[in-house]
């Protein structure tokens, strides 16, 4: 009995015990479920993306926020490489290295980084990522939380924009300009390039504000900004310092002189009328220029010196520019004076044309001449084109001047033809500005017609750089000129691109070997080889080859041996005025190379 009671007791106790254990197990399970539900609810409603990733970087779990951030459905995310959700930038790569590579399996310290997530359709979203390691059932995994920080990034960018840019003009403000200036100085110093800083202040701007109101004033400032952009190169850094003050940093200057040209353009542009509500308003600018490294070695002095120079420009009566450095100022004044005289020279017809004969190398027959411009400035010596053509080019005056040269040269060529030089050909140089001008073809057609010159008696000389700047456009213009019937020559050949490919492409008749190759032949064997190659190439392309700057019989003899077609140079004649050239023609229908000829030395 005792025995059976004990057994029963044991059963009861066991039963009772089991019931307890079950209850507590039940309770535990219920609490686990509740926790799980709570956890799920947290994970599913979390605004941040959450992923659990295994040691190989494969996604085991992803919450809805992650799915909507990257645009993949949750099942698609399962098994995907986590790295596919990131852009392959340096930050992401560093992150993966830190997370997955050497510490595999080891518990890792939490990793934080900012990078770009990559969405299913390839977009980037700035994100902040936190990752930490955990061990579940002896397996290492990573929990990764991804936060979309686009909004924060946008606000930061907006703040940066507000603090570094001028709202009205969209230009960098003084603060950013200063930072970029420091950077540019480092670059300029490393590359050994000069820079110039233009400090631009509008004259009488207050008057516009007073008459056109503040909105009108704002509009004018926007127009000024647009004009500044047009006058300066893309690499120049323009800033609005506030009010009517602007600055421009000219980087990568090959020549500090370019600052003068830019300042002139800015003055011209600022002085053009501003249209506002049907009315025209007028303004001008005063500009101060400092240069690095010549007068200002650092950012502070560049800014200070340019500003000081700007005040001097105001003192000088506004609407002008002043360099900080006295030497540059003197040179700029010289230029301004030269420009004024150049304009007067056009009105007063002070330009004349000189002629230099071109002869057949094999026979000495004079076949024509090159027209070369001279400025016959009263009270001064004859001025050579190199002294004034660059300025005439810059100011656009070369267009009317070039037209006159063409007219005069064609008229005189016709006279020499009439005097018995049948087939006489006149070569006229074109400048880049003339070549770019839309009326060129029409002008040429009209002028040869008016002068009664057969178009094939005119040869236009262009340089390689003129055609290479815009080969498509150049090819079109050259074809139009060929259609008029004129001949085309490439001048100064060998000094530029000298490419066979483009010679084929452009319809030219003649190449002129640059004087620099001729001057040291026959002594300089490299130059002999180059000249030989150019002549051979010209031959194979059926182009006529002219050698320029022939000064000695030895050069002429070499050219004859090499089979060069034509030559010109001091050996035959310097460029001379029309009357003298007429006399030359009478004496030398055929020019004789005298074995004992003495070279005429350049003046
Ligand atoms: P270019 O067209 O290459 O002209 C040849 C230059 O070489 C001329 O200089 C000529 O006087 C010079 N020259 C000729 N033979 C010799 C020689 O034996 N020895 C030396 N040392 N020099 C010689 P110039 O007349 O001073 O003209 C210089 C440049 O100015 C010309 O080079 C041409 O590019 C430009 N130019 C001249 N006239 C005009 C023009 O009417 N319009 C344009 N756009 N440019 C012109
Ligand atoms: Mg020429
Ligand atoms: Mg030349």
Topology:
Layout: H1 2-45, E1 49-53, E2 59-62, H2 64-70, H3 74-77, H4 90-100, E3 111-118, E4 124-136, E5 139-148, H5 150-164, H6 174-191, E6 195-203, H7 205-231, E7 237-242, E8 245-250, H8 257-271, E9 274-276, E10 279-281, E11 284-292, H9 299-315, E12 321-323, H10 326-347, E13 351-360, E14 366-375, H11 385-395, H12 398-418, E15 425-429, H13 432-436, H14 440-451, E16 458-463, H15 464-468, H16 471-484, E17 487-493, H17 500-505, E18 510-513, H18 515-518, H19 525-540, E19 544-547, H20 553-562, E20 566-567, E21 576-577, H21 578-587
Parallel strand pairs: 11-12, 14-15, 15-16, 16-17, 17-18, 18-19, 19-20
Antiparallel strand pairs: 1-2, 1-5, 3-4, 4-5, 6-8, 6-11, 7-8, 9-10, 13-14, 13-20, 13-21
Helix pairs in contact: 7-8, 10-11, 12-14
The site of ligand C2E has 25 residues, from strand 14, helix 11, helix 12 and strand 17.
Summarize the structure.
The chain has 603 residues and is of the alpha/beta class. 49% of the residues lie in helices and 21% in strands.
Name every ligand kind in the structure.
Answer: ligand C2E, magnesium ion
Q: Report the major sheet.
A: 8 strands, mixed, barrel
CATH superfamily of the largest domain: EAL domain
Number of strands: 21
> Termini separation (Å)?
148 Å
Structural class: alpha/beta
CATH topology of the largest domain: TIM Barrel
Q: Averaging pLDDT over every residue, what do you get?
A: 88
Discrete helix count: 21
> CATH architecture of the largest domain, please?
Alpha-Beta Barrel
Q: Which percent range describes the beta-strand content?
A: 15-25%
CATH class of the largest domain: Alpha Beta
What is the overall shape? elongated
Helix content: 40-55%
C-alpha Rg (nearest Å): 40 Å
The low-pLDDT segments are 596-603
Order of strands, widest sheet: 13-14-15-16-17-18-19-20
Q: Estimate nothing, just give the exact number of structural domains.
A: 3
């Amino acid at each position: 009995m005792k025995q059976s009671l004990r057994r029963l007791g044991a059963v009861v106790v066991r039963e009772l015990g089991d019931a307890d254990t079950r209850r507590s197990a039940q309770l535990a399970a219920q609490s686990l479920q509740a926790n799980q539900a709570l956890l799920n609810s947290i994970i599913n409603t979390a605004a941040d993306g959450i992923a659990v990733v295994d040691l190989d970087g494969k996604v085991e779990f992803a919450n809805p926020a992650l799915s909507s951030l990257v645009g993949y459905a949750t099942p698609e995310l399962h098994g995907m490489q986590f790295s596919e959700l990131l852009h392959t930038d340096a930050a992401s790569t560093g992150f993966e290295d830190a997370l997955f590579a050497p510490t595999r399996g080891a518990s890792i310290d939490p990793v934080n980084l900012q990078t770009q997530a990559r969405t299913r359709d390839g977009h980037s979203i700035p994100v902040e990522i936190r990752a930490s390691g955990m061990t579940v059932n002896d397996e290492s995994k990573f929990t990764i939380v991804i936060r979309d920080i686009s909004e924060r990034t946008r606000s930061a960018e907006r703040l940066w924009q507000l603090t570094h840019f001028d709202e009205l003009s969209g230009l960098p403000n003084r603060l950013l300009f200063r930072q970029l200036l420091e950077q540019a100085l480092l670059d300029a110093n490393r590359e050994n390039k000069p820079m110039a800083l233009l400090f631009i202040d509008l004259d009488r701007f207050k008057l516009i504000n007073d008459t056109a109101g503040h909105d009108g004033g704002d509009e004018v400032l926007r127009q000024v900004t647009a004009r500044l952009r047009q006058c300066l190169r893309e690499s120049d850094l323009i800033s609005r310092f506030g009010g009517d003050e602007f600055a421009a940093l000219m980087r990568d200057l090959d020549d500090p002189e370019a600052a003068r040209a830019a300042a002139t353009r800015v003055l011209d542009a600022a002085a053009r009328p501003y249209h506002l509500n049907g009315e025209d308003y007028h303004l001008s600018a005063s500009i101060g220029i400092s240069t690095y490294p010549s007068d200002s070695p650092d950012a502070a002095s560049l800014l200070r010196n340019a500003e000081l120079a700007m005040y001097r420009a105001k003192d000088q009566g506004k609407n002008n520019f002043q360099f900080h450095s006295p030497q540059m100022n003197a040179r700029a004044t010289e230029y301004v004076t030269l420009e004024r005289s150049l304009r007067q020279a056009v009105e007063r017809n002070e330009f004349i044309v000189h002629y230099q004969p071109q002869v057949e190398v094999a026979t000495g027959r004079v076949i024509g001449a090159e027209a070369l411009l001279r400025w016959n400035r009263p009270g001064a010596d004859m001025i050579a084109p190199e002294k004034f053509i660059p300025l005439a080019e810059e100011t656009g005056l070369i267009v009317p001047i070039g037209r006159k040269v063409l007219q005069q040269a064609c008229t005189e060529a016709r006279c020499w033809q009439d005097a018995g030089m049948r087939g006489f050909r006149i070569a006229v140089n074109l400048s880049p500005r003339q070549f770019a001008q839309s009326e060129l073809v029409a002008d040429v057609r009209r002028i040869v017609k008016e002068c009664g010159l057969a178009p094939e008696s005119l040869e236009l000389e262009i340089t390689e750089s003129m055609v290479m700047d815009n080969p498509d456009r150049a090819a079109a213009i050259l074809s139009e000129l060929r259609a008029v019937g004129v001949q085309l020559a490439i001048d100064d050949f060998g000094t530029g691109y000298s490419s066979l490919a483009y010679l084929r492409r452009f319809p030219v008749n003649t190449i002129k070997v640059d004087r620099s190759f001729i001057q040291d032949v026959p002594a300089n064997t490299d130059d002999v080889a180059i000249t030989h190659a150019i002549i051979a190439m010209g031959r194979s392309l059926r182009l006529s080859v002219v050698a320029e700057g022939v000064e000695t019989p030895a050069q002429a003899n070499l050219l004859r041996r090499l089979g060069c077609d034509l030559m010109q140079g001091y050996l035959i004649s310097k460029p001379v005025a029309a009357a003298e050239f007429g006399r030359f023609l009478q004496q030398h229908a055929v020019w004789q190379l005298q074995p004992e000829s003495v070279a005429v030395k350049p003046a």
